[in-house]
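Form 7-S
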Amino acid sequence: PETTAAPASGVKVSTGGGIRVESADGNFVGQFGGRLLVDTAFYQQDKTRLGDGSEFRSVRLEGSGRAYRDWIFKIQADFGANSTALKDTYIGYTGAKPAELVIGNILEPVSLDALISNKYTTFMEPALLQQTIPDRRIGVQATVRGDKWTAAVGAFSSNIGNTDGDRNEGDSGFDIAGRVTYAPILRKGQVLHLGMGVNYLNPRSESLRFRARPESHVTSVRLIDTGNLANVDNAVTLEPELAVVFGPFSVQGEYQHLKVSRGNTSDDLSFDGWYVQASYFLTGESRPYHLNDSPYSADFGRVKPKRSLMDGGVGAWEIAARYSTLDLTDGTISGGVEKDITIGLNWYATNNVRFMLNYIKVNTDDDATGNAGRALPGKAGNGDDPSIVQARA
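Output:
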């Protein structure tokens, strides 16, 4: 980043990860930034109609900062994917170290892969099982951090309204989520990360539904889908996580067990999923591990090339592979089983510019009927196995 210093009575301005303005005493900080993710995807269809195309996956503008030393804030709006939505929007207090309190619209502390910003993920889209985890919701979260560990717990309202923008006046559901992490090995270029996330969903007057895109967002098709689940009392997700970084090589994986309790009138349900991924930097970089980000902790951040294109280098080059699976069939619910294999190539041209290429081979079983109404002519039947090539700038 480039920095322009000012006298003690002035401000300091820096650029690199946005435009940052800081008071001389450091008690007030303001930063303006954003992101632009442009995707295109091509589908080798099997039985379901999948439309090739492009989209602005994310177009975000954000303002964030710190006031009176201990108060943090952020406002982030996303105009991508043909919709407008608030993303991270919160106010927090950090003056009771090592504790932090945040109130607003944030991600629930459950999963490593879900908490990594889509600016820094190894693959274009999260693994299948992450799509069963709630997106950002309004709530309150408390976090405590040590030298190698973190603990976070939060309560959130699902705050669901009707499609016309009015509330349905039924009781809003609520979630309680928590995550603990420990990194017994934590030094530059070497990390061993262990974690466990727990999420409790109580839908109250709302319904629950679990489904997943085939790790591609240009299509709206979900090949596996439970449909709306009736008589749900609550759902509990357990998600252990593991990550290892050794120089340019890294491995990451998570397992998910989802238990749905449905009272006395319907049988309880159990769904499972897991993924494992590995990556290697051909140019020698290493995935950076962040323990103290707010409001999220113990995740991976921005890769900075050793020699970027701006410096006359070739940037950073990364190859990666992932296997993921999600089983949404149990008892009388035949949501289907999907297994995806993804191969990825990433080029980090500069600190702020990246290009991604993913190939995904999808395999589903005969219960995968989530989009039976979109079958190709003469291709009716279950078990859909398309292939996908997609790219992002």
